[in-house]
Amino acid sequence: MSFYPYADEYPVVRGLPETGRPREEILAELHSMAEREDASWENGKVSGSMYCGDKEHYAYLDEAFSLFGHMNALQRDVCPSSTRFEGEMIAMGLDLMHADAVTETTPAGLVTSGGSGSILHAMLSYREAGTARGITGWNVVKPETAHPAFDKACHLLGIELRIAAIDPTTATADVDSIASLIDDKTVAIIGSACNYGYGTIDPIAELAALAMSRGVGMHVDGCLGGFILPFGEMLGFPIPVFDFRIPGVTTISADTHKFGYGLKGTSLLLFRDQALRNGQYFFQTAWTGGKYCSPGIDGSRSSGLLAASWASMVHLGKEGYLKYAKAIFDTAYAMQDDIRSHADLRIIGTPSFCFSFTSEAFDIYHVNDALRPLGWRMNGQQYPNSIHMCVTRPQTQPGVRESWTADLATAVAHAKANAGQPAKSGSIYGGISGGLTDEADQFIRAVMGDMMDKHQALPPLG
Q1: What is the rounded distance in angstroms from the CA atom of residue 160 to the CA atom of residue 74?
Q2: Which has the least CB within 10 A, 199, 379, 384, 415?
Q3: How many angstroms separate the CA atoms of 327 and 237, rounded?
Q4: All domains of the chain, ordered by start, with CATH?
Q5: Do residues 193 and 201 touch, judged by C-beta distance below 8 A?
Q6: Which of 139, 129, 255 is nearest to 189 (CA)?
Q7: Three-state DSSP class for 45?
């Protein structure tokens, strides 16, 4: 990877060109880059990232986007279709999360820009609700495995984030640890369904009961699992309930741009009570430009993303989502069986479509060192060092699981042969480091090294 990719083929733009280039020439460049980058994941050996992988579906979404991409969802009088798309996406999300089980309040929702956006908006809602109850100096409690987007959101909103321990035997939230961190300034606690790192589902029912007993909110982060775990439950896989059927669950995030098979840039934040959702509204009535109101943090948004995500959901319906979910769960469990066939490998916790594995016999990154030349792009983790795989539709293609079986055996043999030697790869969110130019590698290591010097390492898991 380079800070100037394609510099050997195309001129690097270092300022606004004096004269424009022909559209045909630019489009030819874009087609060339896209085709090569698609080739890197189309073989089904990339963890996560490309959740759909269906070019016909992408073309369908692109057409839906193209019809509304130039429209602004902020201007609802000019573009009323945005209200339809957004409202119906929320309705479908509430249906999937069993909002019909809620009788004491009126559920509601919000379409955001992605998982981090949904988490940021959720934390804003809890902060505002806490302020309305007279709380200042708010805090939120999350298990360590909950996504760093919570850290970011709390940082941006001035909320203290308290990090609880996890149960090392299950790689899920330790309820007692979370309970010990709640006080009179706590506005919410967090649970994941599932967490990114290990793919394990926190004990949501226990956490929700704790939240109710202490009078705090309970957010379920379903950004990764929200559009696949419910279908796994419908199919009979061992997926515990995590949604609004559980009293005490007050908000849920679920990314339509992941297993909802929409375009990147949309996510759902669902509320048990619309009163909590009302904390998102911003009003400025004294501005010379007119009375200003926005329903969330974002102002202008492309209606095209709403149109494309809505089009994906209504096209697939429950039947389509169930079909793809079954193939993904079957593949994921088969891949885990291959891991268990190697005595020196250990799967962390009890995962489903997303899983992580490690080894006490050798540095697990040796396994990645061998898998990488075979085309596999796994995600690296730490505390303990482990490799993470999120199974998506590309892995369900014929022959991919068979390649995994053979390539994993080769990688384990390599790891055994190199036990005691330093591995070449390491852990960076979204992928294992490696393949960088010297310039980029030195820069990243310098920046990350400075940050790591200031970071207190977490205790190892298990």
Answers
A1: 32
A2: 384
A3: 12
A4: 81-313 (3.40.640.10), 318-453 (3.90.1150.10)
A5: yes
A6: 139
A7: coil
DSSP strands (E only) in 231-320: 251-254, 267-271, 282-284, 292-294
The pTM is what?
0.91
Contacts of 220 (CB under 8 A, 6+ apart): 191, 192, 193, 204, 242, 243, 249, 251, 252, 253
Question: Are the C-beta atoms of 212 and 247 separated by less than 8 Å?
Answer: yes
> Is residue 89 predicted with pLDDT exceeding 60?
yes
SS3 assignment, position 91: helix
Span between the terminal Cα atoms of the chain, in Å: 34
- Taking only the tens place, the pLDDT of each residue in 419-440 is 988 888 765 555 444 444 445 4
Output phi, psi for 242, to 5 deg. -140, 5
Residue 428: its pLDDT value, please? 56
Give the pLDDT score at 293. 87
In order of 100, 229, 239, 267, 318, the CA distances from 322 in angstroms are 21, 10, 14, 20, 6
**Percentage of the chain modeled with pLDDT above 90:** 83
Amino acid identity of residue 415, one-letter, is A
Question: Is pLDDT of 361 > 70?
Answer: yes
pLDDT score at 294: 86
Provide the b/e sequence for 229-266 (b: ≥16 CB within 10 Å). bbbbbeeebebebbbbebbbbbbbbbbbbbbbbbbebb
Give the whole-angstrom CA distance, residue 106 versus residue 174: 31
> pLDDT category, 450, cuts 50, 70, 90?
low
Please state at what angle helix 303-340 crosses helix 400-417, rounded to 10 degrees. Answer: 60
* Contacts of residue 453, Cβ cutoff 8 Å, sequence gap at least 6: none
Enter the tokens of residue 400: 């991919």
